[in-house]
Amino acid sequence: MIRTNLARRGFLFSAAGIGAGAVLAGCTSNEREPQNQGQAAAAGQGSNAEPGKPVTIGFSAPAADHGWMAAVTINARSMAEQYSDVTLNATEGTNDVNQQIAQVESLINGGVDVLVILPFDGKALTQVGRQAMDQDIPVINVDRVFDTPLAYRTWIGGDNYRMGVNAGNYIAEELKRQNVNNPVIGEVAGIDSLPLTQERSKGFRDALRRHGFRVGPRVAAEFTPESGERQTANLLQGAQTLHALWNHDDDQGVGVVAAIDASGRDDFFMVGGAGSRNMMELIKADSGPMKATVLYSPSMASSAIALARLLGQSKGLGDLAEHEIPSEVTTYSAVVTKQNVDNYMDVGFDS
């Protein structure tokens, strides 16, 4: 995202499809190499896959009430299990702000070494983040950002604006390849009141404008399959001509695809958002309107655990000259197509 308290959605350090865990585990170490010809050596060459100092990581996230959020917790647990030197203390997911605060306080009092927190509400959880930091417990803030950097050591999350940009660029380039003039381009957004939706839509508009195109019929859903189906049906009823459609969210995309199937229309192609395995399978099959999705992957949670481990062991990222973990990591919204879908299946999640 361009950071926002209510943002959601993923992680790839590399647009080439390398798994996030492999990047962090395979390219990091605490070893130092000598300076050479005035150039700073990378902060740690070699591999951090070997066991190091034991680290206890506390993990807190909202309830797994949809596919993306469920994958966040699954990914965090899976990454922790890869390290024999990591103990993960994970709380039960909750959308009750006060309960999440109490859970994080329990983790702090339990003596964890590092905290990984995806807050239900970044503003509401800011104080407990500061409480941990004030007690010298580093906090990895995932996706929904706290109100102040004083509440976290490192933030990792997605880029909502670039989601829109990359979706718009893909659609525009595909329409040009098809020699479509004056195309009608639809948009099924998420919840319009959220900054993340506004950022995605702005990126989409800006990218299409660069190509001389514009957004046509637009509806806003609610990040659920039911709302996606309902709003897409409304859009299709009012748009007799349509060449392309961008849906912001693959969870609601289940309903979007259902509405398209029910309409019987095949006069346009569709691009999704987030990177669910369901949509990747449709892209791979190439038998319907779904041709691409723009990542906002929950594998950011895997990377957050890997980063927490490095912080707990006082290590940096091996391919960077800096000796310390960065204070911010913004993930990249790669475009998944039939040509590269196999490279990204490992970060797909179940809608």
- What is the topology, as strand order, of the major beta sheet? 2-1-3-4-5-11
Helix share bin: 25-40%
Q: What is the CATH architecture term of the largest domain?
A: 3-Layer(aba) Sandwich
The mean pLDDT is 88
Ranges with pLDDT <50 over ≥5 residues? 1-46
Biggest sheet: strands, sense, closure? 6 strands, parallel
Q: Structural class of the helices, strands and pairings?
A: alpha/beta
- The total tally of domains equals 2
Top-tier CATH class of the largest domain: Alpha Beta
C-alpha-based Rg, rounded: 21 Å
Measured by DSSP, the beta-strand proportion falls in 15-25%
User: How many individual helices?
Assistant: 11
Total strands: 12
**What is the global morphology?**
elongated
> What is the rounded distance between the termini?
20 Å
* Fourth-tier CATH superfamily name of the largest domain: Response regulator
* Helix-strand topology string: HEHEHEHEEHEHEHEHEHEHEEH
Say what the CATH topology of the largest domain is: Rossmann fold
